[in-house]
Specification:
Shape: globular
Mean pLDDT: 93
Strand order of the largest sheet: 3-2-1-4-5-7-6
Strand content: 15-25%
Largest sheet: 7 strands, mixed
Number of strands: 7
CATH superfamily: Vaccinia Virus protein VP39
CATH architecture: 3-Layer(aba) Sandwich
Number of helices: 7
Low-confidence stretches: none
Helix content: 25-40%
Length: about 200
Amino acid sequence: MTEDDAKAWIAERFDVEAVERLTAFIGMVVAETPHQNLIAPSTIESIWARHAVDSLQLVGMAGASPSDWIDIGTGGGFPGLAVALVAPVRMVLIEPRRRRADFLSLCIARLGIGDRVTVEARKIESVVGTAQIISARAVASLRNLLHAAAHCSTKDTRWLLPRGRLDEDELAALHEHWRFMFHVEQSVTSPESSIVVLDKVNAK
């Protein structure tokens, strides 16, 4: 997917104001990356495809109008803050690294979405509250992620987990300790990337 393809993909799915907010945010990420490693510098030239579309494809997998969303390990804002800029969800961004959390808070203030988007500068293990959607972009192994964040889910929570290349053995190993339903979505940005979608997650 080229950068022009990525921008067209976004423009077809979201309104003009959402695209304008996203454009402003991407400008902030590009400006800040030389000062702290928000994204790999090698991906700046492909930021719309590698980061924006890669994040926003989760919106279509979230189901009908979710209201509460937790994004674990948001880093430079992907996918959680990007999603919050185009979808009217209450978003909690989990980012334990203070400088990145401060950057995210600055973006939220400048983009005028502080009424529904917050940052928790702590690990997910100490976060209180649940959400309809939990996302995490290649943060940890699936087993460790569920162990750390299960207290933030309910039986109705959907987990959206971009994983790069799918490790089927890792997914199979989850069945030792967890009950769940799942399917795998192909990423629109890379034929080698996938998103694991988990529903009805419950410890055995």
